[in-house]
Amino acid sequence: xxxxxxxxxxxxxxxxxxxxxxxxxxxxxxxxxxxxxxxxxxxxxxxxxxxxxxxxxxxxxxxxxxxxxxxxxxxxxxxxxxxxxxxxxxxxxxxxxxxxxxxxxxxxxxxxxxxxxxxxxxxxxxxxxxxxxxxxxxxxxxxxxxxxxxxxxxxxxxxxxxxxxxxxxxxxxxxxxxxxxxxxxxxxxxxxxxxxxxxxxxxxxxxxxxxxxxxxxxxxx
Length: 221
Known about the structure:
It comes from Photobacterium sanguinicancri. This is GAD-like domain-containing protein. It holds the Pfam family GAD-like. Helices cover about 35% and strands about 20% of the residues. The protein is an alpha+beta fold. It has one domain. Strands 1-2-3-4-5-6-7-10 form an eight-stranded mixed beta sheet. The chain has a two-stranded antiparallel sheet with strand order 8-9.
């Protein structure tokens, strides 16, 4: 960890919930320079202190946006989202959810890849960037990154027990995909390469952009 890093209460609370990081890849000065003035200064300080790393045996990951550029291009290719801002993947979870930060609009989209959904968030102005990134981590909850089976049973711990902890390039993916009618069951989940799996899911071509109202209609339909 960077010895000059001062832990803020929001990230401290995040660590209380998610535990200490593992599989930490140091962030080079080149990466910091590349994303300076594009992503929140506070996020870059987290990178310098902790690197790119996983939490809770791979439930949640702080990622290098460079690694996800091709995946993000595939997912946004047939939407008008890239017309509005330049977006970067700053985090992801064990089931392939991607969290996007816009250079001008902040935390604006979350991609629930297993469903083919791009979910619009409120976003924020550049002036609110550091406050917003602190909130992003401080309000993150362990349970929200888990998913459930058709009968409502949480799946992450069962996946870990069956398949082991995730590596930085791995996720738990469904086969058959939920996008084409697969069932959310432990038997249908396996450990897969995240980049290959995200590409396959994007190629199904059933991507929907949803605001909160549309998402609620989906949830209760």
